[in-house]
Automatic annotation (TrEMBL):
SUPFAM superfamilies: FAD-binding/transporter-associated domain-like, FAD-linked oxidases, C-terminal domain. Its cofactor is FAD. It comes from the Bacteria. This is Glycolate oxidase. The lineage of its organism: Bacteria, Bacillati, Bacillota, Clostridia, Lachnospirales. Residues 42-220 form the FAD-binding PCMH-type domain. InterPro entries: FAD-bd_oxidored_4_C, FAD-bd_PCMH, FAD-bd_PCMH-like_sf, FAD-bd_PCMH_sub1, FAD-bd_PCMH_sub2, FAD-linked_Oxase-like_C, FAD-linked_OxidoTrans_Type4, Oxid_FAD_bind_N. It holds the Pfam family FAD-oxidase_C. One of its GO terms (molecular function) is FAD binding. Keywords: FAD, Flavoprotein, Oxidoreductase.
Amino acid sequence: MGYKKIDKDDIAYIKNIIQDEERILTGDFIKEEYSHDELSGISSYPDIVVKAKSAEEISEIMKYAYKNVIPVTPRGAGTGLVGSSVAMEHGIMIDTALMNQVLELDEDNLTITVEPGVLLMELSAYVEEHDLFYPPDPGEKSATIGGNISTNAGGMRAVKYGVTRDYVRGLEVVLPSGEITEFGGKVVKISSGYALKDLMIGAEGTLGFITKATLKLIPRPKIVISLLIPFPTLEHAINTVPLIVKSKTIPTAIEFMQREVIIDAEQYLGKAFPDKQSDAYLLLKFDGNSVEEIEKAYDSIAKLCLEQGALDVLISDTEEREDSIWKARGAFLEAIKGSTTYMDEVDMVVPRSSVNEMVTYLHSLQKECGIRIKSFGHAGDGNLHAYMLKDDLSEEEWVKRMNEAMEKVYKKTKKLGGQVSGEHGIGFAKKPYLRESLPQVNLSLMNGIKKVFDPENILNPHKIAQM
């Protein structure tokens, strides 16, 4: 599709909308970080970056872009891992970092309304001060809420509480045409036509620009206790997961990890992990309103794990221990990245009953494809993360082995009844795998929806199902 190349007249018009030159970047003033997200393998600079402060500013820019067929890329904190916020057709990038206000805490309806640039860690801290709880817990705490909604981010607590989609009550959205509208609201139930709000969640900024979100909150659990459970082998640990899932007790989180990743995290953080005697671990989190309630919940799970060959059950019942374990878990991604020259990531999801088979398969691929693969993940919800490491491979050999390994991973995922992404989205990087995994009719429906919302295809083009 032919897009208009931005010229000095376009820049002048945008400056007239914003009326603050410090919030507009062009040419050499556009920092390198705006050319990519955390994936960093895909790079493309926008022609102009606008640091928006309101839905009205975004609306005026979208109206102008729509009329002149100029591509627009929404951007939050740039922490994505699939190239969702990369300006593939250059054009205008709208940065929401300055739209970072909490607009309303409604304790009567247990909702909070925020701008899209509010960071996840800021939101969590804010509501906890009011003894409330926002359960979605993606690993990247410096991501924006707008980005979390755009990718339907999941995180570790999804086992018990669900994902971002389950906590979005209402959205204010600027459509590609520039019109401002609202989807959903503060209501708990809604059955009034198509679920347009839900179309926005996970759309990666391709259908509309999220400028406000009303989120559901719940009362904050008073106590959190974790169990760190070492197993003699990875197979022992992973084979125990389906049994935990089938039990009557639902932990807040069920994570699996291997010693080699723990050692990476120790080196990265400069802090010792509470235990590294074993090759594999399950990390379980329980929350509730009393110690007795949580002890009753985890007692049967602890016995079950010991019956399955666990070497020990380490109870993290102090804030210091809890902090050291989960800080290490939160550092896994950065620690792995620091242990190699470059990495690419596979975020796949399989039925929970197939987690053990998928993890075992990932482990076997290292020898088969001649590439180092590190994996960890949310074993309780079937969302696994595998990291392909380049190390000292030549560029040619790296691309060949990585592509072979990825093809095999996604083929196995499909065979097990899984999907290409559980929480990171598709963006630009994972489009080939999405096309292989879904029926053509599904892809056609996605592209048809895109055309209805964005007939000029100006909003975040080349992402998800688009060729």
